[in-house]
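User: Let's play a game. I give you a shape written as tokens, and you guess the letters that built it. Ready? Here's round one.
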């Protein structure tokens, strides 16, 4: 199935956005490299609200997850919204984004807007590619209702995992394990300081995912320390980094999948990873409102704003 797209260019960077796929970014090409992972086992298809994202929508690229990542029910104690069922991967991926494209002196930009279906909100993301090739993303979520609105937000860009992949995150940041599977991570401690995690009788350096073990998958959440709002992925002499204000975007999610997980019973497991700036250290809004803590709120008729800047650079490594 073919979908229309919006393409933004600046410097040596090109970004492709598909409104019909929930405003997904299907291509982020910079310095001659396509950075985003594409799923050969699951081509893009028309999204279905309430369906399993892993089984129907996980074709690769860069999604926005809001107001939850994992499917859950809002705890009963939350005024007005208690008991509400929220879908897998949130609400945005399964609806066509309204898109407006503009040209400014400092670069082309596309504004994507979504309306809440189960909760009262308007979610806006402005993507701008500057003349220098940086990708600047500005976000606003506005509570359009009369009650406090709980939420999690997570960017979810998927990247290929190769033998050369290196991950740079704030050293010493507290990391909590959301999930893990595979013999390579048997005995993984529930909490550690990035990047060194104890796995049974050894220490694994998760900044070099290929060296951790033959086959495994895990999801982690980091609390970003003050003045360290930078994360990066490196492939040879190329580096893609994201810069953010850790006071506003206080967490990073990390997904590592070295040939261990696929949603399909007889499917070939994926080789991919994600570095996910996020607001709230959990996949499930219910858990963030409960034992994990860290849920965020928007007051009635108020807004929350934040931004990310992605940029590719050439290093002296490789």
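Assistant: Ready! My guess for every position:
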């Amino acid at each position: 199935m073919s979908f229309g797209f919006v393409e933004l260019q600046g410097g040596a960077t090109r970004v492709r956005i598909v409104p019909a796929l929930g405003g997904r970014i299907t291509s982020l090409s910079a310095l001659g490299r396509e950075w985003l992972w594409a799923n050969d086992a699951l081509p893009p298809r028309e999204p279905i609200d309430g369906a399993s994202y892993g089984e129907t929508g996980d074709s690769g690229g860069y999604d926005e997850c809001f107001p939850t990542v994992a499917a859950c029910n809002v705890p009963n104690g939350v005024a007005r919204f208690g008991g509400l069922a929220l879908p897998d991967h949130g609400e945005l991926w399964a609806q066509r984004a309204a898109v407006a494209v503009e040209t400014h002196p400092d670069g082309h930009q596309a504004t994507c807007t979504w309306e809440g279906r189960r909760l009262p909100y308007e979610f806006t993301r402005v993507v701008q590619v500057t003349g220098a090739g940086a990708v600047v993303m500005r976000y606003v979520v506005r509570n359009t209702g009369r009650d406090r609105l709980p939420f999690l937000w997570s960017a979810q860009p998927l990247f290929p995992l190769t033998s050369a992949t290196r991950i740079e995150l704030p050293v010493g940041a507290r990391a909590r394990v959301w999930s893990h599977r595979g013999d390579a991570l048997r005995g993984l401690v529930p909490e550690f300081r990035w990047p060194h995690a104890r796995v049974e009788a050894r220490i694994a350096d998760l900044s070099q995912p290929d060296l951790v073990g033959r086959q495994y998958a895990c999801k982690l959440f980091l609390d970003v320390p003050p003045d360290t709002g930078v994360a990066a992925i490196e492939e040879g002499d190329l580096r893609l980094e994201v810069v953010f204000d850790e006071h506003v975007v206080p967490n990073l999610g990390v997904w590592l999948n070295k040939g261990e997980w696929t949603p399909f019973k007889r499917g070939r497991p994926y080789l991919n990873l994600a570095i996910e700036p996020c607001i709230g250290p959990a996949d499930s809004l219910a858990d963030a409102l409960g034992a994990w803590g860290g849920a965020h709120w928007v007051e009635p008729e108020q807004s929350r704003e934040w931004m990310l800047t992605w940029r590719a650079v050439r290093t002296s490594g490789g």
